[in-house]
């Protein structure tokens, strides 16, 4: 952790682990990715903490602690225990300059320096005007995950596509939920710190489905209805039915100028259904006739 935090204002805080692990870093890596690798290796989670003395910030700390909570499968929904939800733009992961590289066999590192005037990175000037920090670029790192046999030209193309994704804000959420588990004494509805839950708000357009973790709770000892929870690690979940409706509407829109074709297709479908219905009726009539003939033959034989 100390190595990962070199050159930053952050310091190592509380660490909860037992034992040692080896890690080899043989490529460019930013401090945040480095910390995430460490946390994953030791099966810990990262907590960022700021200490304040009086009105001054005394220190910035990164804690790594054992993962809390459970995968509960609980749903927080509007009208039950979801009080409110806000969608918030987040600029934390924005970069204005992107360094791209590929580690090839034999340890060689491929960059775009040879075709980019000696610079292994590209910049976005518009993003720099919006997001620079005291006149300095915010750097990010990028390595294509699926392409090994790659040229500098191809890497440059991929980097431009990736940088375009990183110059805009990301989306986060502010969720207010009430613990009906404590209000009504329902054990299966309880929310504990670290729990992973589902959040559903069909009032959004399109409907909003999230997965999130309860980061911290502020529980009242006298009035459970005043309990408040802060959530994080949001992940938006796609509603497959909603996606199918979008695809269906796009298809209808694309066929909007082909109404005659649509009418013909509808007629063919109706004709096919009618033909199938007639065939079924004829089949049933033939079956009935055969049964009657068989019955008559049996009766005549008995005589």
UniProtKB/TrEMBL annotation:
Keywords: Coiled coil. Signal peptide: none annotated. Residues 1-205 form the Tail spike domain. InterPro entries: Phage_tail_spike_N (IPR007119), Tail_dom (IPR010572). Residues 258-300 form a coiled coil. This is Tail spike domain-containing protein. It comes from Bacillus thuringiensis Sbt003.
């Amino acid at each position: 952790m100390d190595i990962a935090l070199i050159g930053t204002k952050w310091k190592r805080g509380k660490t909860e682990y037992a034992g040692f692990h080896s890690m080899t870093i043989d490529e460019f890596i930013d401090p945040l990715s480095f910390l995430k690798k460490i946390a994953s290796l030791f099966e810990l989670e990262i907590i960022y903490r700021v200490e304040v003395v009086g009105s001054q910030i005394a220190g910035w700390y990164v804690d790594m602690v054992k993962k809390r909570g459970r995968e509960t499968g609980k749903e927080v929904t509007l009208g039950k225990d979801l009080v409110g939800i806000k969608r918030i733009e987040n600029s934390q992961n924005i970069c204005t300059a992107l360094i791209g590289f590929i580690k090839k066999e034999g340890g060689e590192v491929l960059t775009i320096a040879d075709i980019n005037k000696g610079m292994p990175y590209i910049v976005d000037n518009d993003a720099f005007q919006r997001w620079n920090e005291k006149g300095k670029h915010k750097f990010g790192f990028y390595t294509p995950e699926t392409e090994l046999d790659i040229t500098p030209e191809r890497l440059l193309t991929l980097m431009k596509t990736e940088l375009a994704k990183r110059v805009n804000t990301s989306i986060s959420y502010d969720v207010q939920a009430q613990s009906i588990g404590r209000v009504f004494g329902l054990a299966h509805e309880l929310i504990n710190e670290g729990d992973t839950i589902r959040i559903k708000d069909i009032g959004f357009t399109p409907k909003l489905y999230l997965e999130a973790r309860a980061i911290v709770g502020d529980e009242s000892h006298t009035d459970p209805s005043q309990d408040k929870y802060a959530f994080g690690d949001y992940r938006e979940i796609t509603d497959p039915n909603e996606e199918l409706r979008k695809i269906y509407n796009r298809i209808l829109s694309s066929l909007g100028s082909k109404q005659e074709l649509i009418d013909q297709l509808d007629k063919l479908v109706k004709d096919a259904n009618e033909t199938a219905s007639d065939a079924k009726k004829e089949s049933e009539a033939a079956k009935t006739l055969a049964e009657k003939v068989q019955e008559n033959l049996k009766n005549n034989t008995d005589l």
